[in-house]
Q: What sequence folds into this?
């Protein structure tokens, strides 16, 4: 009897492990159980991927396609993958944030506080401190006279309202990418626009009908992205692809009851990527793998927590490119060496940005009354993660 019971227990345990590996759990289970997730780790990993990819990109187009990710998955680059991860998890979290607290003023205030304070400080410091040191022009021309591409003051004011300006007079003129002070900022207007889209869908109560909203999102991005790829039209603007990842994250949130995350499903999708490596389906399969990996990584692996909940991702993303340009200007022209030197500096600046700017700003997203009334509305994903993507 003892042996039989033991055998049954072993078989039951084996079946449970196989079920967990191949079927896993629904995203709704993952979120509602309130267990520790890996969102911070994912976002930090995405920021480091962007930093790695830019370590090649800042050395010019001939070097930019020599990075490891391109050899593993042709047409895919590390910084592109990192940004896709950001947008996927952002779409999931931002939609979840609205569903949990559908309050338009608070939603918009929280989104603005997540993006603008750290952005403004980064833009101002790089233009007022780094720019004057590295420019080859006179300070009067740099700050006031400028050229056809503007002045340092104009750079600050325009970027502060997401009317992006990437270049400054005389800055990094001898670098492979001349004049570019911060090539990472271009994704922020897309992100902010998508926040407004979620707010609009929520305000008009569209998100109350998850299947209809999901179908609408899928149809919009299929027409913008997949139709041009498969019908011989010019390739879609990459901003649409990023918006598509955000939309996929929103759909995953809306249909989280029906979407399961497991290592078995992740393995099947990776196999499809390998098999489609030299076919016209490579890019869609890669996109599917990146999107599903985002959800899988958040809940399946058990990873050590980041100490004190430090969210270094946004600050690292903002500061890495100027740091890398400075390193190249100093004479470093090997991509992995650029990465090795830039990574600790960018991470330190990311930590300073989180501690001194982002975390204090996020405390202002609730009014005094809302802090007492609504502090228990969110479980699972912490709302402090649901900002930048």
A:
């Amino acid at each position: 009897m003892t042996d039989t019971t033991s055998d049954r227990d072993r078989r039951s345990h084996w079946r449970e492990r196989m079920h967990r590996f191949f079927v896993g759990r629904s995203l709704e289970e993952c979120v509602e159980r309130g267990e520790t997730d890996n969102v911070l780790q994912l976002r930090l990993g995405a920021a480091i991927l962007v930093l790695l990819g830019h370590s090649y990109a800042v050395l010019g187009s001939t070097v930019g396609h020599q990075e490891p990710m391109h050899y593993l998955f042709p047409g895919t680059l590390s910084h592109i993958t990192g940004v896709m991860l950001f947008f996927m998890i952002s779409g999931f979290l931002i939609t979840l944030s609205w569903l949990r607290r559908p309050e338009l003023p608070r939603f918009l205030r929280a989104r603005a506080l997540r993006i603008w304070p750290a952005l403004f400080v980064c833009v101002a410091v790089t233009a007022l401190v780094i720019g004057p040191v590295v420019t080859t022009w006179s300070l009067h021309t740099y700050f006031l006279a400028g050229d056809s591409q503007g002045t340092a003051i104009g750079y600050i004011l325009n970027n502060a309202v997401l009317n992006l300006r990437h270049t400054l007079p005389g800055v990094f003129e001898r670098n492979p990418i001349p004049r570019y002070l911060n090539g990472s900022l271009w994704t922020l207007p897309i992100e902010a626009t998508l926040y407004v889209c979620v707010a609009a869908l929520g305000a008009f109560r569209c998100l109350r009908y998850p299947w209809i909203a999901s179908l609408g999102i899928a149809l919009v991005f299929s027409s913008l992205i997949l139709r041009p790829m498969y019908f011989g039209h010019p390739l879609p603007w990459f901003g649409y692809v990023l918006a598509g990842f955000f939309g996929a994250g929103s759909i995953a949130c809306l249909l989280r009851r029906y979407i399961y995350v497991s290592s078995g499903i992740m393995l099947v999708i990776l196999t499809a990527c390998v098999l489609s490596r030299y076919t016209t389906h490579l890019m869609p399969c890669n996109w599917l793998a990146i999107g599903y990996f985002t959800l899988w990584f958040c809940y399946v692996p058990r990873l050590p927590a980041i100490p004190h909940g430090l969210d270094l991702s946004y600050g690292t993303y903002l500061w890495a490119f100027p740091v890398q340009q400075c390193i190249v200007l100093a004479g470093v022209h090997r991509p992995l060496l650029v990465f090795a030197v830039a990574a600790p500096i960018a991470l330190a600046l990311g930590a300073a940005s989180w501690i001194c700017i982002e975390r204090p700003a996020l405390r202002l997203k609730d009014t005094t009354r809302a802090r007492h009334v609504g502090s228990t509305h969110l479980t699972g994903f912490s709302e402090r993660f649901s900002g930048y993507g």
About this structure: Confidence is low (pLDDT under 50) at residues 368-389.
